[in-house]
Amino acid sequence: xxxxxxxxxxxxxxxxxxxxxxxxxxxxxxxxxxxxxxxxxxxxxxxxxxxxxxxxxxxxxxxxxxxxxxxxxxxxxxxxxxxxxxxxxxxxxxxxxxxxxxxxxxxxxxxxxxxxxxxxxxxxxxxxxxxxxxxxxxxxxxxxxxxxxxxxxxxxxxxxxxxxxxxxxxxxxxxxxxxxxxxxxxxxxxxxxxxxxxxxxxxxxxxxxxxxxxxxxxxxxxxxxxxxxxxxxxxxxxxxxxxxxxxxxxxxxxxxxxxxxxxxxxxxxxxxxxxxxxxxxxxxxxxxxxxxxxxxxxxxxxxxxxxxxxxxxxxxxxxxxxxxxxxxxxxxxxxxxxxxxxxxxxxxxxxxxxxxxxxxxxxxxxxxxxxxxxxxxxxxxxxxxxxxxxxxxxxxxxxxxxxxxxxxxxxxxxxxxxxxxxxxxxxxxxxxxxxxxxxxxxxxxxxxxxxxxxxxxxxxxxxxxxxxxxxxxxxxxxxxxxxxxxxxxxxxxxxxxxxxxxxxxxxxxx
Length: 510
Fold this sequence. Notes:
Mean pLDDT: 89
Largest sheet: 7 strands, mixed
Structural class: alpha/beta
Oligomer: single chain
């Protein structure tokens, strides 16, 4: 692990909007650099860009820019254009939805099946789960990594297997849980492709890399090991632009050709009077899938974002090491905070702690999901933690995090309890009911990014200690773990003395 000390040197210059603030929601969106905005602004002011679908000079300039940035983006993911194409979308959700729609249309064209099988992991984002509604109930949620491994190893389970080996299948999972930061095995896509099981040979892989790509290198240098389809969101990597993409392995791209819908720019010929006919573009995959006018200004901004990112950070590997160091420091600090009676202040959610270790970038990202506990063992409402943190200039996220499977498994919430909370007025994404019969309905999430610093982590740990019971026992334990963490990189860190005032959470009525 290596802390990137240069971030401390350039952060105030490149990220002036972060001065005096502690931003800890990089999993939601990271922060854009000042030089990115300035570079993009210069391009927009000094060039005349037109709609790429026209043939004028401004339009041709836009088209050439889009083509070059498409290649630059593939190179950023170490994806050879001979084996991969990239389809620009509004965000990762749009990329995931596009794949689901193509499988639905493929299945509906077959009189023998009329549907497809869909498998997804419990740690999946809501956008991944949503594809199940296209399958006519022919779907399965894998409740653990072990269940996925058994399926890949041809463990016979009628509840998992497609009803027929002749129907198409799609297996989707997140490269990293957007809730806990746990990183799932990337080897699954290769195992699925190499399997000799008949149903596996007709099942394709979709990797939701929106969370994973924020602080680690997506490496598609080996096309045989790469997912068939990969969804990403660039604002989570660079902060700007608001843009997503679907990276497509060309050998699997024929599946996407079954999509029924066509938009402007994706066809070569069309008749609407007397006869309904259409000739779709087929020179490249993206030609047939990028509906309407491309967000070419956003794509131009993406080119600037990649250049600035490389200039500031060098590589995604360096960012991965940096955030791994910080997440371990954060984790060690949190687990060593206790109430005066010995009760741990934080319950951190990770169902495989022996495998997913903070500080190991292979198995764990820079995200910590937790709840705060009272001295009597009761839980502090997650929205109250976010509210008090916000008042102190610390910005994090709380709630269900669009991860129903993670909430259900980590918090042991049964379906009837979800329904009870709904009946009582709880709504996902809104300030609702934090506790039902003492059981939390959500969590607090802290996530780190490329421009996070030791000061950010220490400020948050100070906040946690001060917001509970700032007694001597907490100070001693906190100082001890900070010294241990600092020793690992030969760098000392000053522990800020905590003020005597207490921030108190209001009591929940539920």
